[in-house]
Predict the structure of RNA-directed DNA polymerase (Reverse transcriptase).
Amino acid sequence: MFVDIHDLEMRVRDVYIDGNWQFNSLYTNLPQAIKAKLNSSTISLNPYVNDCYTWKGNLNGIYTARDGYYWLNRNSFSANATSVVSWSWLWHLPAPEKLKFFLWTMLHNSLPTREMLSHRGIINDNLCPRCNIHAETTLHCLRDCNFVKTIWNSIGFSDQDFFQGDDSYNCNIIHHETPTSKLVKWNALGGTGMILNVDGSSSNPGISGFGGLIHNADGAWVHGFFGNLGVTNILHAELMAIYKGLLLAWELNIKDLWCYSDSEMAIKLITEPVDV
Ligand SMILES: [Zn+2]
């Protein structure tokens, strides 16, 4: 097609005025087919951008296969919060990597639930293997199955609001503080004292052991210890953990020490009068 030399410097905004094409302002005689195509195109004027083809699939107008995929599936994704919410904050949680990875997978609806596996044609049956009543979706698997509800209830999630709604991304699982949660942490309470963290383990009664760590006030490792107690109970293991930890601290000439144990009974026995 021939373009008149007077039109070479023209921009879209010179011809597209108040929402209409002013083809008469061109020296070039446009074929009817091109006029029809231009009339059916959506025009977006932006004084800061050179004339270019763009598309509305993302904010910068640059096409990528990923954006194309999301645009083609926009209707099915529109109800899914994962397409608009960034979950990257999750990687900053002070939690084990395997838990963060699990949550990440869950929030992107990628857990290999039976619903997901049957949707992908890997298995035929999508029923929950625990209750055999409902499809095993992510939400059913982790929140709604009656077998799972008993676990939530046992750790204090009895609020019915928690079990309502079909959007797992709004049920605040991560931010919900359970009333039974206990925090064991390196904390010299702002001082310069050393910190002793101890723990006992036992199949109660059964093979038991203990271990612990001494850190300085900045959290740097100083010393560690562990031991085997043979067959005994958990309280014995917890008490031995504290005893061995204090013994080690004494040998290291540490006199300013915070001792942390997660055994309420052991702490009670040490700090309160005992009725014998
Ligand atoms: Zn179930």
About this structure: The pocket of zinc ion is lined by residues 128, 130-131, 134, 140, 145 (CB under 6 Å). DSSP finds ten helices and six strands in the chain.
